[in-house]
Amino acid sequence: MYTLYDWTIIDDDGQAVLENGNRLLIGNGYMAKRGTVEEADPPCMPAIILGGVYDKHGDRWREPVNAPDPLFTVLSLDGIPFTLAGENLSTHTQSLNFRYGVYSRKTTWNTKDAHLTVSTERFASMDDIHLLCMKYTVSADAPVSPRVEIHINTDVCDLNGPHLGDFRFEVKGQTRTLICETLEKKIPIALANGIEGGSLSSIIEENRSSYLLDLDGSNPVELFVFGTIWTGLDADDPLENVEKSVLRAKKAGWDCLLAEHKAKWDEIWRIGDVVIKGDDYAQRALRYSLYHLHIIAPRHKRRCGNFSIPARGLSGQTYKGAVFWDTEMFMAPYFLATEPELVAQFIRYRIETLPGARRKAVEYGLRGAFFAWESQETGDDACTDFNVTDVFTGRPVRTYFRDKQVHISADIVLAVKRYVDATGDFSILKEGGLELILEVARFYLSSIYYSPERKRYEALDVVGPDEYHERVNNNAFTNRMILMVFETALTTISLLKEKDAIFIEALMAKLNFSEDFAFMQAVMPCFYVPQPNEQGVIEQFDGYFRLEDCSLDVVRSRLKDPKEYWGGGNGVASTTRIIKQADVVTMLALFGDEYSTFVKKANLAFYEPRTEHGSSLSACMYALLACETGGSDWAYPFFIKNAEMDIAGKGKHFAGLVYIGGTHPAANGGAWLTAIHGFCGFSLKNNKIQVTPRLPSHWQEVMFRVLLPDGLHEVTVTRDRWDEKVRGQNV
Ligand code: IFM
Question: Which of 161, 447, 628, 648 is the most exposed place for a label (fewest CB within 10 A)?
């Protein structure tokens, strides 16, 4: 069972192994290591996921590479390894300090002569992203001689692997190296570990990485293990680099490396922290959520191009380690306020993957840029046509996420627009941002239809955010987003024309966009966006109101298997008004200025009881809209649901038979969105901070910081007032 304290989460029974893997994850944006114990075997899903490194095994799903573990350590006595499953287990706790990203465990086993305890600490250095550090301490209350073996373990678990081959080990003194390569693209992956004995005199026998410890019953033995990882995407000679990194780490030593790592975290929190007064649990849970965003933020420059954040972060191989709309819509707002350079990096990643988006559009007989629903390093779509497995037949189910969830391209445009609005950084538009916007506009221009009867342009045969209803016409959210793309294209062109007319002319010529431009102008006034009915409710898509109107409980009672997929051809929700996640409500939360409070309230009241919230992207949109309509207390449980998503570990683990467990960065971002945009009523207008306090009734105060072009702003919001201090340029 876990307990959440200030900056620490502790699990004291080790039962929930898979949940703890996520809950106690450490990382630094380059890689993340799951919160499993050092000796964990593949069924416990130990993993070190490397951001942006993918592999495909045969015709199985392409997914991120799980690297060998350079910190793998097993303790044994008389040849019998100690495990958490052993009957000799006495006590076990694991914890995570989420201020500094330090994982710890303490486990005691009974032996016939003594109680034997292993205590470890480890971190993924924020200072040297290639480095993992571990302190491994063994103690006993009576003399005993256990053995410690430290390997670079290649026996890792993969959902669709294995992904590595051609393993070549070498041992040089206390340093062990391994070079191997991915199967598909032959990317070299190099690892090394170096071991330092804090009490080397206690080690009486040494055989490569195997140590027989002579414990005297009072003095513990401390071993320090430094593991490093480089890939062929980082350097020409990753092997040389891992060796150098290990030597550097051994020379610096644990204390120094830990201090450097902590200094980086201090810097992150100096800008990124949020302080809540009046609600300790919310404070802890929100900081924990922000921690999870920071450990997957790709701050480092990659020589092979920019990368973004996958939907399950770096917590495993779920969803093929792919980047979805989650990043732009749910995570980017936090980083836009605190580290806008990261959002620029997300956008650059999309600019660099434009060729993949163009290829996808061509594949569907369309023009422009149709971004991948599940994007990996090239921008080609990793999403398959059969993304769910039927629980009854074991057969793949045809899903339409890949070909019909067209809003993905517009979501990316919205992020570009928001970035430029907030930072005034027009350079990104010239470096491919405007090209991206125009190519997305062109994609929609090539996919919409004109209805002569209704005298309007429509978007037909799409899937909106509610994935349970496939191939629908005029999904309100999608249509409004498409219109936003046209609006953004138009305003950005005229804005840049004023600044650099030659650039605009050249770009229009390069893209041959003049005809599209004229067509877009003609389409805009007659592009259809569904409007509220007399009751103020907006129909989610054409014909939605004609579907069976039954309760969530009734739909749930129709399930024959708890893992059954609710959507698609045979899903229990497909023929009903029950939806998976916020859809119309997301549109209202994004375009709030265009709708009255009456309409917002009507849609909240209508859609919330009909929403399964089967996605971690749902709660925050309901919460945001509720805050706008005076419902902060109503929104509070939705905020908590988001903020504690990875603490409680109650998120869905299966879609059909496909494993979808992992961390939920979109929910982490959603928690910040609700606290800051929702409860504090924060927004930016022309680079000026605006706040409308609407805190939940038991909150006294919230402090957060925003990094604007003129410096760091510290905003304090109380129940009825707010205050802003500018801390100047020197951030
Ligand atoms: O992007 C989401 C989608 O909206 C719902 N299914 C899971 C995806 C990844 O989080």
Answer: 648
